[in-house]
Design brief:
Elements lengths: L7 E5 L3 H9 L4 E4 L3 H4 L11 H14 L4 E5 L9 H15 L3 E5 L5 H9 L4 E6 L5 H4 L9 H17 L3 E5 L3 H10 L4 E4 L7 E4 L1 H4 L17 H17 L11
Helix pairs in contact: 1-3, 3-4, 4-5, 7-8
Length: 254
């Protein structure tokens, strides 16, 4: 698709029902993001989600995906301790969830783990720029790689990930011109989020783009629906119908 100039559309997904709908609508890749920690579990950060929780969610998404390639995020702590542990966890994710690939955050510092995974037959997607598992080092979720030194390191890391055999790289919340330069400099497809229009594809968090997450509206996010309003209206109507005994009707009863 990169070679053909066809843009790649990716969304996150965390359950069978929505994965089935998103897959049917023509998505190319589904990411079971560790953003599940925020979206599904209500945590402030991605850090608390576990291997067992990621595998549980990914199983449902895999069952719902008939066409899309399914990628599972490796949770914080599952690949940083040692290369051996990283490979063991990556293999466990593939074996137990049935997904196609894993994604992990970082560049040169996790390159040995990435190399071992790829050697073991695990397809790996990289993730550079704003890497939310490092929020405590970054001190927030601001734009990354604005300064030359960080931009140069990001370009260097992207080339290393590409050479190591990553099948794709996510670039999150970095200047659009840098994302475009990186996209041209590497052979694998680059998927952007908050990284402008010069990448090979885009990814968004499903609940954000559907307008389910009302409080979150960063500049890079477009709401393609306003489902929070629909859900509240439907539930309000259901509550009223139960309270005034109009639900269930005779036709809805056995
Ligand atoms: O966890 C996630 O949802 C992600 C995307 C934002 C790329 O990593």
């Amino acid at each position: 698709m990169k070679a053909a100039g066809e843009k790649i559309a990716m969304l996150t997904s965390y359950d069978f029902t929505l994965a089935s709908l998103v897959d049917e609508a023509g998505i190319d890749m589904l990411l079971v993001g560790d953003s599940a920690s925020n979206v599904v579990c209500g945590n402030q950060y991605t850090l608390p989600i576990t291997m067992d929780e990621m595998i549980f969610l990914t199983k449902g998404v895999v069952r719902g995906a008939q066409h899309a390639l399914v990628v599972c995020d490796m949770p914080f702590g599952s690949y940083q301790i040692s290369e051996e542990e990283a490979v063991r966890n990556a293999i466990r994710i593939l074996k137990e969830s049935g997904c196609d690939a894993v994604k992990l955050e970082g560049g040169e510092e996790i390159l040995p783990a990435i190399r071992h995974m790829i050697q073991a037959g695990v397809p790996v997607m990289g993730h550079l720029g704003l890497t939310p598992q490092s929020v405590n080092q970054f001190g927030g979720y601001g734009l990354r790689a604005k300064e030359n030194a960080e931009a140069e390191k990001l370009m260097h890391d992207a080339k290393l990930l590409d050479q190591a055999g990553c099948f794709s790289i996510v670039l999150e919340k970095i200047p659009a011109d840098l994302a475009e330069k990186v996209t041209k400099a590497v052979s694998c497809p680059v998927i952007g989020i908050g990284a402008g229009n010069g990448t090979d594809g885009q990814v968004l968090v499903l609940h954000d783009m559907l307008g389910l997450n009302q409080g979150f509206k960063p500049k890079f996010l477009r709401h393609f629906a306003q489902l929070a309003e629909n859900v509240k209206t439907a539930v309000g109507e259901y509550v009223a119908a139960v309270k005034d005994s109009s639900f269930p009707s005779a036709e809805e009863s056995y």
